[in-house]
Amino acid sequence: MTHSTSVPIKRIRRMRRTANMRDLVREHDFKLADLIHPIFIEETLTEAVPISTMPGISRIPETMLADEIHTLYKLGVRYVMPFGISHTKDEIGSDTWNDNGLLARMVKTIKAACPDMMVIPDICFCEYTTHGHCGVYHDEHVLNDETLELLVKQSVTAAKAGADMLAPSAMMDGQVKRTTGQPNIFVLK
After folding, report:
1. Helical axes 65-75 vs 102-113, angle rounded to 10°
2. 10-35 as b/e, with b when 16 or more CB fall inside 10 Å?
């Protein structure tokens, strides 16, 4: 049996041809600064209450929010998503567009405690309504268009309070389009 040394071996190096391709396919890692940390803030609590379904996460009193932000920042967390648990509930979640309501206070407290922390508040009504739905509820239905108007108000309030980004989680058809079409949402700092 003879072996030919004249047949070249073709080595396809397509995965290493350009810097962008190498960046795409190489091994990556992540750190705390790459994650968004949820924070659940409840108005009337006096001490933190663990959330059994989320090990390591607790509902914290509003009075402990600034300390929690300092701790998270020291650990390397750079993004937080505050979820308000309001005790000022009504049928339409009006506390969320009150400039002195829980949503605005959370954002202001976080930014005052640590201006570099990126604040991405949850834009939804479920924890601000008496019925627990994500919008205006009537005759066993969530009313989409009526809810959109209120979500815009909530978004404007969050932006005015200092939110860096919004997390539109109410699941209303057209929420993102309706919200981003508002010039008052993009407040320059």
Report:
1. 50
2. eeeeeeeeeeeeeeeeeeeeeeeeee
Q: Which residues pair with 36 in a beta bridge?
A: 79
Q: What is the pTM of this model?
A: 0.77
With 0-12 / 13-18 / 19 or more C-beta atoms within 10 angstroms meaning exposed / middle / buried, residue 92 is: buried
Model confidence at 88, pLDDT cuts 50, 70, 90, reads very high
For 103, other C-beta atoms within 10 Å of its C-beta total 29
Residues 74 and 98: their CA atoms lie apart, in Å, by: 31
In angstroms, the Cα distances linking 121 to 16, 73, 138, 160 are 40, 17, 26, 12
Tokens matching residue 144: 């989409």
Domain ranges of the chain: 29-185
Select the highest-mean-pLDDT range: 14-18, 107-111, 154-158, 176-180. Answer: 107-111
Measured in whole angstroms, the distance separating CA 58 from the mean position of its chain's CA atoms is 17
Residue 84 DSSP code: E
- Is 29-185 CATH 3.20.20.70? yes
Per-residue model confidence as pLDDT tens digits over 145-156? 787 888 889 889
